[in-house]
């Protein structure tokens, strides 16, 4: 399927690794020019060099701290002419209400919740003036599968689902689509660290991470790949999904509904 994305300009946060990196590669394959944002300068530069060499598209790197308002402003300034914004920066630590400090709540939300809100607001006006644009929020299926042991993530992700649905319900009047993707457990470096941490608590050593993963009885017997999430993001951003707005697609192999079994 031709996704009709060639020549478009796409800005992606959290692009140096994981889902953000896979999303950058997927858009590049479709012929999109990119603006990539993250804190990891070397990671961004290495990815940019690879993408430019393999796909012949233009890549701009913006090494900023997206949890800070000034970093968000710098990223918005460097990517003012984009067609698509993909919010993908941020992760939330596990823990119950009494385990998580006020500092951790605020630091995590400054990056993922307020970061998404501020960047959507920063790009919306320019998109409105052109009468076109797409904002894709990569959120997380803890918004579908609330868990008190992951209360920070569940609460923040649910807020971002609300942002996506509320903004996307009205943005069509300005020619803009706002959509979201809720990934389930995805095979990234962050998940590897998480599994090793669980293994250490359970077995006294981090070396049983694969056993921990197996015990989770995931759909299809595995986590999603980062590329599977990226492909969903790219499709939703494309003109092929031109009548989709205010919608959040859960990509978790059905995990959010397995409690009913």
Structural class: alpha/beta
User: Order of strands in the sheet with the most strands?
Assistant: 3-2-1-4-5-6-9
**Can you summarize the main beta sheet?**
7 strands, parallel
Give the tally of β-strands.
9
Q: Unreliable runs, pLDDT <50, ≥5 residues? A: none
Give the helices and strands as they follow along the chain.
Answer: EHEHEHEHHEHEEHHEHE
Amount of helix: 40-55%
* Contiguous helical run count: 9
Q: Shape, please?
A: globular
The domain count comes to 2
What is the residue-mean pLDDT, rounded to a whole number? Answer: 93
The proportion of strand residues reads: 15-25%
Notes on the structure:
The protein has helices at 18-29, 41-55, 69-78, 102-111, 113-130, 151-170, 189-203, 209-215, 226-237, and strands at 9-13, 33-38, 59-63, 84-87, 133-138, 176-183, 186-187, 224-225, 247-251. The chain has 261 residues and is of the alpha/beta class. It folds into two domains: 9-184 and 226-251, Rossmann fold, CATH 3.40.50.720; 186-222, no CATH class. The strands form two sheets. Strands 3-2-1-4-5-6-9 form a seven-stranded parallel beta sheet, sandwiched between helices. Strands 7-8 form a two-stranded parallel ribbon. Strand 5 (133-138), helix 6 and strand 6 (176-183) form a beta-alpha-beta unit. Helix 1 packs across helix 9 (226-237) and helix 3 runs parallel beside helix 5 (113-130). The protein is globular, with a radius of gyration of 18 Å.
